[in-house]
Design goal:
Blueprint: E1 2-12, E2 32-41, E3 44-50, E4 61-64, E5 68-72, E6 74-76, H1 88-95, H2 100-105, H3 110-118, H4 122-138, E7 141-147, H5 154-170, E8 174-182, H6 193-210, E9 216-221, H7 228-240, E10 244-249, H8 257-263, E11 268-271, H9 277-283, E12 289-292, H10 294-300, H11 307-312, E13 318-319, H12 333-344, H13 348-355, H14 357-361, E14 380-385, H15 391-394, E15 401-406, E16 409-410
Parallel strand pairs: 1-4, 1-5, 6-7, 7-8, 8-9, 9-10, 10-11, 11-12, 12-13
Antiparallel strand pairs: 1-2, 2-3, 5-14, 14-15, 15-16
Helix pairs in contact: 4-5, 5-6, 6-7, 8-9, 12-13
The protein binds N-(iminomethyl)-L-glutamic acid and fe (iii) ion.
């Protein structure tokens, strides 16, 4: 199967060499090619160039992209799209004055989702999750990370991870799975967090390892959830079982979780709405990607991750959705990119780098995804006719996507 896209108004994120991460002031640079073409064979980008030197290729299908912009599909490195039901009642409770914390303390929040999930069959859970996955693909997502964490028992966590595995096999897009066993302390373990961590470390992690159900290990390192000590125990056990850390940290409180993540060579540290100078220092000279989740800040009305502080310190930054029923019931990466520009003062170039190549890095797949590069996977977005790529963040809430191509195939 060969597919040619011609007359592209502007082709974004074109990399002659296979760059796998973009940091600091380099994030302001988004290499582009105007009046371009891209040639795809099977699932791979094999050639691109200017229409001025266009060789006459003999291909099976051609898309004329006159007036349109082409860019790599979004790489969403942090989601919880496998969940059951929703938490719209808590949304209304918050409008009426309760805080996220107060709802959680009353047994709502993650515990509420866990109860629903425990009472949902694997097949039902798969069906709900597949629908969400297909919806976000239509919004331009071409690679995604999905976490467990709404099980809170060994059995229910394994159910979630088996669903993630089925999605990995069933879906055309790249899926990475994360064990978030330590997401909240279940009611039965209230006041005895370390006993629950024992279960995660001694039962859950080995069981997940036995079935090869996850790539990454995650912990919600936060006051009221898991302390530094708890987090360290989980990360250590995860690493011993071949899982790479990717952690939730600094959403509400900064108390050293970032440095702990760096110590365990975390691939990413995510949230960072609260960020100290010490956290920034810890990230320097590390290979850990900071990840911001602006839709979560928007939905919960909490501070935005200080992108300028991170990027201006020479660090990289990735953007992801955090799609989940409690803090971010949206998997729209277009909204994330817009919100990063509007609320976090990222330039369009920085935001697009953060949502493509750096997002791919935060999933360990940036050698294959996240840029237009010969030999990389043909996962692309073709926009509608737009004046410039600035319109992607500018026209927030608009759907400017005309077509999505995944593995060289147009998404129906
Ligand atoms: O990333 N912060 C922890 N976990 C999720 C939300 C969990 C929930 O409320 O269901 C997050 O925001
Ligand atoms: Fe999350």
């Amino acid at each position: 199967m060969s597919l040619l896209i011609t007359n592209i108004k502007e082709l974004l994120q074109v990399r002659e060499s296979n760059v796998t991460i973009v940091k600091g002031s380099d994030m302001k640079i988004l290499p582009t090619l105007k009046n371009a073409y891209v040639l795809i064979e099977h699932d791979t980008i094999v050639e691109y160039g200017s229409m001025d030197n266009f060789p006459d290729y003999d291909v099976e299908e051609t898309i004329d992209a006159t007036g349109k912009i082409v860019l790599p599909a979004w790489c969403d490195s942090h989601t919880h799209i496998v969940y059951a039901g929703d938490r719209s009642q808590e949304f209304v409770d918050r409008i009426n004055g309760l805080s996220y914390e107060e709802i959680a303390n009353r047994g709502g929040g993650i515990l509420n989702s866990a109860q629903t999930l425990q009472n949902t069959s694997e097949d039902e859970l798969y069906g709900e999750s597949l629908k969400r996955l297909n919806d976000v693909i239509k919004l331009g997502t071409g690679a995604i990370e999905i976490k467990s964490g709404y099980g809170l028992t060994v059995e229910a966590e394994l159910k979630m991870l088996r669903v993630i595995k089925r999605l990995t096999k069933q879906s055309n897009i790249k899926v990475k799975g994360t064990l978030l066993g330590a997401h909240a302390v279940p009611k039965e373990f209230k006041g005895n967090t370390s006993a629950f961590v024992d279960v995660v470390v001694n039962e859950l992690i080995p069981a997940v390892n036995k079935e090869h159900l996850a790539d990454y290990i995650d912990v919600f390192c936060e006051k009221g959830y898991f302390s530094l000590e708890d987090t360290e125990r989980v990360l250590k056990a995860g690493v011993e079982h071949g899982l790479v850390p990717k952690i939730h940290v600094n959403q509400f409180n900064a108390f050293g979780g970032v440095a702990l993540g760096v110590k365990y060579e975390a691939l990413s540290v995510d949230h960072l709405e609260e960020l100290t100078d010490e956290d920034v220092e810890a990230l320097k000279n590390s290979d850990t990607m900071p990840v911001a989740l602006p839709s979560c800040s928007y939905f919960l009305s909490i501070p935005y991750t200080p992108a300028r502080k991170i990027i201006d310190a020479g660090l990289p930054l990735a953007l992801a959705t955090d799609y989940n029923p409690g803090s971010t019931p949206s998997g729209n990466m277009n909204f994330v990119v817009s919100t990063a520009c509007i609320k976090m003062k990222m330039t369009p170039e920085e935001a697009i780098n953060a949502a493509t190549i750096n997002g791919a890095y935060a999933m360990g797949i940036s050698n294959q995804y996240g840029s237009v590069c010969r030999g990389k996977k043909a996962n692309l977005i073709i926009t509608k006719e737009i004046a410039s790529y600035y319109n992607l963040p500018y026209a927030f809430g608009d759907n400017l996507i005309d077509k999505v191509i995944i593995n060289g195939q147009i998404v129906p």
